[in-house]
Amino acid sequence: MNIKQFLNSNRWIILTGILFGTLGTLAVNWGNPPNMGICAACFLRDTAGALQLHHNPMAQYIRPEIIGFVLGAFGISMAMGEWRSRGGSSPILRFFLGAFVMIGVLVFLGCPIRVILRIAGGDLNGAISLAGFVTGIGTGTFFLKQGFSLGSNTNQVPVVGLIAPLMTVGLLILLVSRPAFIAFSTAGPGAQHTPLLLGLGLGLLVGVMVQRTRFCSIGAWRDIFLVKDFQLFSGVATFLIAALFTNYIAGNFSPTGIGYHWGFTHQPIALPMTHWSEYVWTFLSLALVGLAGTFLEGCPLRNLIRAGEGDTDATFTILGYFAGAAIAHRLPIASSPAGLGSWGPMAVLFGLAFCLVLGFLQLRSMQPQAQPQKQMFAGDGIIIFPDVASAMKAEKAIQITGYDVKLVAPPPELRMGCDLALEISLVQQQGIERLLQDRSLTYVKILPISKGSTRMCEIVKVTDFGQWVMVKAGNMKLSYEKETGAIVNISGGGCPDIPYLHAEMVDKPLNQAPHPRDLGYTLCATMLQRAYEESLQLEKGGI
Q1: Which of 42, 112, 169, 220 is the most exposed place for a label (fewest CB within 10 A)?
Q2: How many other C-beta atoms can be found within 10 angstroms of the C-beta atom of residue 447?
Q3: Nearest to residue 331, comparing CAs of 319, 320, 343, 322?
């Protein structure tokens, strides 16, 4: 693929990165703290403080951007028919992993989005944290490749999926009404914020963009490690470039502006970096964020978006973020411009140990699996899944049975759930579909990749020969006798199960013949099933 093709196929995620990076930078000029124009985790920390889950007077404000992220994702997912109430995938583990993500963030002082903004603002500690972050994601990806999964979610009653949007509406009411039991900082980062409507509008716009493109700082690196796909990464890269250019254009690097400068020390709202240990914990704290976030299938911003889409597993993760913020500030864990919290390093090590033990324990409990196929494979069909865990489990099951399969990142126009899909051969669709159903493996749907395949699957032709009727679906033909309804012939295709289907179905009445989907394992069986169903309808109507 050349540069032009890459830009054309990734234009929406690239445009999102440019707009997101520009807005995230300008949010500082509009009132948010320096190098913290948009930081999903820091905003959650401030909101937790406003709810008095912790009592740090410098970090207490209900951030309207958080409200916008969730409601923007909720609104656009409803409008596009993608909202679905779902959950039930290891909620307790997600809660604890979310808490450890927040602890890692508060030891470094920034979520993955703020890491990029800090680099774009001249803070070279962001590069150290980015190296740790990528190392954590790489470690998490190792476990994913070995089959790690928090389980697959299932459909829930709609009211459950509405909990997160309703909670954010409640936060908006509290922000506007300002009751006495809600705390608001009068100094420090918590007192620095955009005007309410501007912050809410910024959050809504980001929520819509991220929901539509699946922008995610963790998913970007995970896709590179898993399937060598750079689509999400192109959005993250353009985010950094746009933020850097915007800082220079806005004068944020000038002495009369915000005063950004390149270096490791004297950076705004950051560790002082006066001792070598602070560099070590900068690396390890974001390694914890990357590892735990990979297990959670997304960064804090991505989980806020998923909560807006009806994912209650993401809602449990967000509750974990709140708990982590409360623990980090009630105990001496969170860092500050004065230095590391005395318990911060211990908390990071405990979090890393928790994640590694969790990963190895699950792998130990798994039965030995067949080795993945080594040969290159290019299919003409794609299986869409609601979450990464479902895609990984299905890949293992399909590989063991000998079908051709390849883990891929689906094209943007086909993304309906998670950022991973399975490429298959449509010739094997019937067998793969039955395998997924027999093993209760969750998937959204199976689609042809090429336009030609789509047209083939949709075409059904009926020819009346007087005494007989022939129904053609794709390349498969089924003929039956009008008077008796008996199947007189099956032909077409070239799949190996055609002779068996012919032997089992010919000479039997339509209403007594077995369904092709219960016998065959190929695309021919799939097409024959379409012809068979059409024949049943015609026979009942007396045609």
Answers
A1: 169
A2: 17
A3: 343
Task: Kindly state the percentage of the chain with pLDDT values over 70.
Answer: 91
Helix and strand numbers (H, E) in the chain are 22, 10
Whole-Å CA distances, 201 to 22, 168, 172, 176: 15, 14, 13, 15
Asked if 120 contacts 247 with a C-beta cutoff of 8 angstroms, the reply is yes
- Please tell me the distance from the alpha carbon of residue 64 to that of residue 171, in angstroms, as a whole number: 8
Tokens for 218, please give them. 């963790």
User: Which run of H or of E encompasses 422?
Assistant: strand 421-424
- CB 497 within 8 Å of CB 524: yes
Specify the pLDDT at position 521.
67
Q: Which residues of the chain have pLDDT under 50?
A: 1, 368-375, 451-458
- Per-residue tokens: 384: 């869409």
- List strand residue ranges (DSSP E) for 361-404, in order: 381-384
What does the angle CA 42 – CA 293 – CA 339 come to, to the nearest 5 degrees?
Answer: 45
For the chain, the distance separating the N- and C-terminal CA atoms, rounded to the nearest angstrom, is 51
* Whole-number pLDDT of residue 386: 80
Report whether 72 contacts 203 (CB < 8 A). Answer: yes
240: nearest Cα among 68, 383, 116: 116
Question: What is the C-alpha radius of gyration for the chain, rounded to an integer number of angstroms?
Answer: 27
Q: What's phi and psi for 335, nearest 5 deg?
A: -80, 175
Residue range 168-210, pLDDT digits in tens: 999 999 999 999 999 999 999 999 999 999 999 999 999 999 9
Q: Do strands 405-408 and 421-424 pair parallel, antiparallel, or not at all (unpaired)?
A: antiparallel
Task: Name, in order, each residue with C-beta under 8 angstroms of 183's C-beta and a sequence gap of 6 or more.
Answer: 49, 50, 51, 52, 55, 57, 60
Q: Are 21 and 240 spatial neighbours (Cβ–Cβ below 8 Å)?
A: yes
pLDDT value of position 101 = 97
Dist. CA 419–CA 298, nearest whole Å: 10
What is the value of pTM for the model shown? 0.74
Cβ atoms of 383 and 424 within 8 Å: the answer is yes
Query: For 84-103, what is each residue's pLDDT tens digit?
Result: 899 888 899 999 999 999 99
Q: How far apart are CA 128 and CA 290, in angstroms?
A: 13
Cα torsion angle, 210, 212, 213, 218, sign:
positive
